[in-house]
Write a structure and sequence with these properties.
alpha/beta, globular, 3-stranded parallel beta sheet
């Protein structure tokens, strides 16, 4: 009996996952197509080095990752052609604003400041900010321990602003 309940819950969860993905894809398709009416090809800007979301495959030279796969699925579902345009993360918003790209597919946090400049789809991933230190480091256990320390981050990201 217990295994039957587990099986039913797995089926229910798969259904809801599919439903959520469908809603997200539909929202993104409408967002993209509304801004690109009449265009033969959608130009998708993406970060060139943000594993596992978008990065260059060392064997094939192609850009791959979660965001690249998501764009491919949206394009297939909506029936449009696209090409990707790799660039530095901090160039994505200026490129959208200058009409150099039609959309960006990147692990980008939605902030009020960014929403004043560009439109976003509904969020499809929530990672938060994480701090990593060497495994042997017992001195840094909280954000307060960083005072006076040098911290590496990427410009244009929310971690940079933090």
């Amino acid at each position: 009996m217990k295994w039957q309940k587990q099986k039913v819950w797995r089926i229910v969860l798969r259904f809801f996952r599919s439903l959520v993905v469908s809603v997200i894809v539909s929202s993104m398709v409408l967002f993209v197509l509304a801004g690109c009416a009449g265009s033969d090809e959608i130009v998708v800007g993406h970060d060139s080095n943000f594993v596992p979301f978008e990065y260059r495959d060392s064997e094939t030279g192609d850009y791959v990752g979660f965001d690249i796969d998501l764009v491919a699925a949206i394009a297939e579902e909506a029936g449009f052609e696209y090409r990707t345009e790799p660039m530095a993360f901090d160039g994505l918003i200026p490129s959208i604003m200058a009409d150099k790209i039609d959309m960006a597919a990147a692990g980008m946090t939605i902030t009020e400041a960014r929403q004043e400049e560009i439109d976003f789809s509904r969020p499809y991933y929530d990672s938060g900010l994480h701090l990593m230190v060497h495994i042997d480091n017992d001195d840094i256990t909280a954000i307060e321990d960083l005072e006076g320390k040098v911290v590496a981050t990427r410009s244009g990201t929310t971690s940079y602003n933090y």
